[in-house]
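Pasting as-is:
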Amino acid sequence: MSGFSLFLIVVVLVLPVLVVAASVFHWLGEKREKVDLDREAEESRREMEEGFPKEAEAGKDTGDDDE
């Protein structure tokens, strides 16, 4: 197989597959990031409805100690 035909195989077959794979991984990353942001927004909304943050519920220092 000559060098030119090997070059054509790489350009025509391998390169498009790599581009599509990169696009799919990028899209999946954006979708996962959106799900994480939606989850954080839902948790924040619940905290606002409850009137206190989860840290106070877990017993962490809230800064309002009388010491």
